[in-house]
Write a structure and sequence with these properties.
The chain has 140 residues and is an alpha+beta fold. The protein contains six helices and five strands. Helix 2 packs across helix 4. The longest helix has 13 residues.
C-alpha cells in the first residue's frame, strides 16, 4: 500500500524481497536485529544471506520506511513513512520498547548546536534511553 506508493513516487522498486523485509520489521512490533530478520527471511527465501538483508534494509532506510536504532543495533518501522523528518526515539531500557517522536524544535536545536561549532550534521537522530510510562509505573 503506502510503502509501494512512496517507492513508486520516487522511481524506486519495492521488490518482493524488500517488501518481505519491511513486513518482518513491522510485524516484529519492536526493534529487531539484522540477523534475526535474516533468520526469518531464510524460512521464506532459502539462500538469503547477510548481503541480502543489509541491501534490503539500506533501501528501506533510504526511502524512509524503516529507521536504524544505533544504540540497539536494530531496526524499527517508521511512524511517518515518506515524510522527511529527523528521528527522535525514546528507548525503554526495561522492556525494550521504542517510540518515535517528532519535535521540530528539538531538531532545530540539535542542528543549531552542531552548526555553532562548525559541525555539519548529516544524520541528526536523537536516541534517549530511560523508562517508558508503563515500566516507570510498575513496582520495582
Amino acid at each position: 500500500g503506502r510503502a509501494e506508493a512512496i517507492c513508486q513516487a520516487r522511481g524506486a522498486r519495492l521488490t518482493a524481497q524488500r517488501r518481505q523485509v519491511l513486513e518482518l520489521v513491522l510485524r516484529a512490533g519492536r526493534p529487531v536485529g539484522a540477523y534475526e530478520l535474516l533468520d526469518a527471511l531464510r524460512h521464506a527465501a532459502a539462500g538469503a544471506g547477510p548481503p541480502t538483508i543489509y541491501r534490503a534494509l539500506e533501501f528501506l532506510m533510504a526511502h524512509g520506511l524503516v529507521h536504524r536504532i544505533e544504540t540497539l543495533h536494530a531496526f524499527v518501522g517508521c511512524d511517518h513513512p515518506g515524510e522527511p523528518h529527523a528521528g527522535q526515539f525514546l528507548i525503554c531500557r526495561d522492556c525494550g520498547a521504542v517510540r518515535e517522536v517528532e519535535d521540530p524544535a528539538l531538531s532545530r536545536s540539535v542542528l543549531a548546536a552542531a552548526g555553532a561549532t562548525g559541525f555539519c550534521a548529516e544524520h541528526p537522530v536523537v536516541e534517549i534511553q530511560g523508562r517508558c510510562a508503563r515500566c516507570a509505573d510498575a513496582p520495582r
